[in-house]
Structures are given as structure tokens and as C-alpha cells.
Design goal:
Number of strands: 12
Oligomer: single chain
Number of domains: 1
Radius of gyration: 26 Å
Helix content: 40-55%
Number of helices: 15
Strand order of the largest sheet: 8-9-1-12
Order of helices and strands: HHHHHHHHHHHEEEEHEEEEHHHEEEE
Distance between the termini: 47 Å
Strand content: 15-25%
Length: 466
């Protein structure tokens, strides 16, 4: 009995330590999020520079991702790619650790090192590609864009036979086409634009995004330039528009508008009861929340563990949206007004991505709770007070993994703006709720045939307060 008390006491102390160490880092990060979301990017950078010890801890990946975003927004593109490359390597080399896996089973997933969500891995390559474009390295940018759909193909193989909506990225194809065209590779640009259109048409209705009109114009223009008359005729009929003739003596600005902030991962606590089942099939329901979750176990051992769970409290992750304050934006140029069009809704992709793996997440959670309840039952056999202590710790430690990359935008919009070679000025203007506006002016000196790239992030969002 004395030995059991020592073990459980050690278990309680260790678990409490892990819990409080998690909370401490998150409490520290509040000031970073406050600076970043308010537009104080230098302050956000200063926070990260003074918390470099985080690169040695379980949240190191989030540090690399946030540092990469901050450095890009400050125009430090080489430094930004340095941190994004560290994030990429970390994800590639990520290995399960038995000790942290065991710690997770007696506490919660927050004790494990953080590994990116699928969509976050994709966004690393987007940011690296933009950095390379700003550094006038289009070949390196193309490599990053190609990696996006390679990664998504790998994920589709993992989820084969299961619901998985984010199986291809239309914006990656679109960006690839833009880069190819900037290199005067019109044939590959046409192929990339066509792939982008098909992906918007077939995959992106799930994320509430349609093919941008600018993409359709680019597809028609490149088909016309290549003399692909049958394809041109097909897409003119499909789009209900004609190919536009390019301006003479032009350069091009491709403008990317990052709007708002991506959702923040929280948790929902459910009080579930089993409603029976045959063999390894169980249905867990929460009458208050109207939630019903069917779980089927192919492993008999897992099934026998879960069958003992009659009433459980579980914490599962969910995303809380942070809606942007600005709903539209346009660019004023010497050639007129150009409406920015949504090309990627990161918020909706994140939410769909989590929903598609929720059953797997739920099954892991139930397995963890079964182990906790087994430990509680064993402790009660030795001593009722000891069992009560374990029960208290179990309840205290039940928590979903609420970490995610919070400096991503809510959405990305873009526009291709043809300009006369020479000096040009563009004015960006975003319109928002309660008549608020966000404006910025940009000047360019363009050579004939040159393509330059510009990004701008409107950070203002509703929702969570820091």
C-alpha cells in the first residue's frame, strides 16, 4: 500500500508540474499575441527574441512558425525562411517519443511536442515561396509550391478510404501558374492555371471559395497566347467571357492580401454515456450538446477497454473563428480599380481539416480516459482516499491539445494588376464593418515585362481578446 501511495503521489506531482509548465508558456504568449494582432510587429519580434529558450521546448515548432511570419512582415525574408526551414525540417524529422506518449496517456496531449496540422504544413511552403519571390528567386519559389501538393498527396494516402476534404490546394496551383508566367513559361503556366480551376471547381466548394475571375482571365489569356484554340473555345463557353488582349509595354504587380487572423484552437467538454453496441461498435452521446459519436474498434483489446466506460467526460479540440473586420478590398491604379478576390480561406480549411480527423482524435481520447479510469480503480482497491486523489488528478488533467499556429491569416486574396512600364503608384483600400477602412500606398518602378510581388496583411479581427 505504501508503494502504491508513493507511485500515485509521484504521478500526481508529475502531472501537476506538466500542467503548470504548459500554462506558464501560454500565459507568456498572451503579450506576443496582443502585440501581433494589434500590428505591433516589432514588439512581437522583441518578445520572440527574448524567449529563445522556447526553441528547446515542446512548443518549439510554434516558435519557428511565429518567428517566420514576424520576420516576413518586417521584410527580413532570408531570416523568415531560416525559421520556416527549421519548421519544415522539424515536421519532416518528427518522431514519436515513448516517454511523452506515456505522459500523454496519464495527463493530456499538451505534454507532447507540438506537430503541425496538415494545413499548417502547407502554409509553411506558401510563406517560403513568397519569401523567395520577394528575394527574386522564382525557381526556389516553384520548389516550395510543388511541395504543397506533394504533401497533400501524402496526407490523402494516410486518410485513404476516409473522409478527407483538403486533398489538393487550388491556391498552390494558382501561385505556381503566376510564377511560371513571371518566368515567361506560358505552357506550364497554362497547365497550372487549368489545374487550379479544376481544383476550385471540384474541391473548394467545401471551403466556400469559387474560382477567382482573375484566374479565369489568366487561363483564357495563356490559352490564346499558346494558340490552344479548342481549349480557348471550351473555357470561353465555360466562363461566359472572352480572352482579353494584353496591354502594350506593361509590367505586372501581383498583389496578395492577407486578411484577418486564422481560428484559435480551443476545446469542448462533453459528458458522454455509451448506448451499447455489438462487438467493437459503440455510440457515445451527449444529450445536452446533441452530440452522437459512433466508434468502431477493430482491435479487441481496445474494444474491451472502452466497454467499461459507461459515463465519461472528454475534452476534444475545436476551432473558434476570428472573423476579419474587413470584408472586401481593392487596388486603385493608373488603369482603374481592381477588386481583390479570395483565393484561399484558411479558416474554413482549418475547421474542415480538424473535423475530418475528429473520430480519430475522439478514439485516442477515449483510450486515454480508459487508462485513467483503470488507474483510478486500481488505486481505490488499495485505498479509497488514494482513489479519490487519482480521480481528482484525472479530472484536472483532462484537456484537449489547444495549440495551433495563430499568426496565419483568415484568408488570402489576390489580383494581377497590369501597369505601364516606368513609375507607378498603387493605393490599397479595404472596407470593413462600421465603415472602417484600411489604406496603404505602394510605389513601383517597372521594367517592360517584369512581374513584381506585393503582400499586405490587414490584421484586424473580431472574436477572441488577449
Amino acid at each position: 500500500m505504501i508503494r502504491m501511495k508513493n507511485i500515485v503521489g509521484y504521478f500526481c506531482i508529475s502531472t501537476m508540474f506538466l500542467l503548470f509548465s504548459c500554462a506558464t508558456y501560454y500565459q507568456q504568449r498572451i503579450s506576443f499575441q496582443r502585440d501581433f494582432s494589434s500590428g505591433n510587429i516589432e514588439g512581437a519580434q522583441n518578445f520572440l527574441m527574448h524567449h529563445k529558450k522556447a526553441t528547446k521546448k515542446k512548443d518549439r515548432l510554434l516558435y519557428f512558425l511565429d518567428r517566420g511570419v514576424v520576420e516576413q512582415m518586417l521584410g527580413n525574408y532570408d531570416s523568415s525562411n531560416y525559421y520556416f526551414e527549421k519548421a519544415y525540417i522539424y515536421n519532416q524529422d518528427f518522431k514519436r517519443n515513448l516517454a511523452t506518449d506515456l505522459a500523454m496517456m496519464v495527463s493530456n496531449p499538451m505534454v507532447r511536442p507540438y506537430k503541425s496540422e496538415d494545413y499548417e504544413v502547407v502554409m509553411v511552403h506558401y510563406y517560403k515561396a513568397i519569401n523567395y519571390l520577394m528575394l527574386n528567386k522564382p525557381d526556389e519559389a516553384l520548389i516550395e509550391v510543388r511541395r504543397i501538393n506533394i504533401r497533400l498527396n501524402e496526407q490523402s494516402d494516410i486518410y485513404e478510404g476516409k473522409r478527407y476534404r483538403y486533398k489538393e490546394d487550388a491556391f498552390a496551383h494558382l501561385l505556381m501558374g503566376i510564377i511560371y508566367e513571371s518566368k515567361y513559361d506560358i505552357n506550364n503556366a497554362f497547365i497550372a492555371y487549368r489545374n487550379a480551376y479544376e481544383t476550385y471547381k471540384e474541391v473548394y466548394p467545401a471551403f466556400g471559395v469559387q474560382a477567382p475571375d482573375q484566374l479565369k482571365k489568366d487561363l483564357l489569356r495563356t490559352a490564346s497566347q499558346l494558340g490552344f484554340n479548342s481549349e480557348l473555345e471550351f473555357y470561353e463557353k465555360e466562363f461566359g467571357m472572352k480572352a482579353e488582349k494584353p496591354m502594350d509595354s506593361t509590367g505586372t504587380v501581383v498583389f496578395f492580401w492577407l486578411n484577418g487572423l486564422s481560428p484559435v484552437k480551443g476545446e469542448i467538454s462533453l459528458n458522454l454515456t455509451t448506448t451499447g453496441g455489438d462487438g467493437g461498435a459503440f455510440v457515445f452521446t451527449d444529450q445536452n450538446e446533441g452530440v452522437s459519436v459512433p466508434i468502431v474498434f477493430s482491435n479487441p483489446d481496445e474494444s474491451s477497454q472502452i466497454s467499461d466506460l459507461k459515463f465519461v467526460r472528454v475534452a476534444i479540440p475545436k476551432f473558434d473563428r476570428r472573423d476579419p473586420l474587413f470584408h472586401s478590398a481593392m487596388i486603385q491604379s493608373p488603369n482603374g480599380s481592381h477588386q481583390l478576390e479570395t483565393a484561399e480561406n484558411i479558416s474554413e480549411i482549418a475547421i474542415a481539416n480538424l473535423e475530418d480527423r475528429l473520430l480519430k482524435e475522439f478514439a485516442l481520447t477515449l483510450g486515454r480516459i480508459a487508462l485513467k479510469q483503470a488507474a483510478e480503480a486500481a488505486a481505490r482497491e488499495q485505498d479509497e482516499n488514494l482513489g479519490a486523489a487519482v480521480s481528482f488528478v484525472n479530472a484536472l488533467t483532462e484537456k484537449a491539445d489547444t495549440r495551433n499556429w495563430q499568426t496565419l491569416p483568415y484568408s488570402i486574396s489576390y489580383q494581377r494588376i497590369p501597369l505601364k512600364a516606368g513609375e507607378n503608384e498603387l493605393t490599397f483600400e479595404a472596407q470593413g464593418v462600421n465603415s472602417i477602412v484600411d489604406t496603404a500606398t505602394f510605389e513601383y518602378s517597372l521594367r517592360e515585362g517584369e512581374t513584381v510581388f506585393q503582400t499586405y496583411h490587414s490584421l484586424a479581427s473580431t472574436g477572441l481578446n488577449y
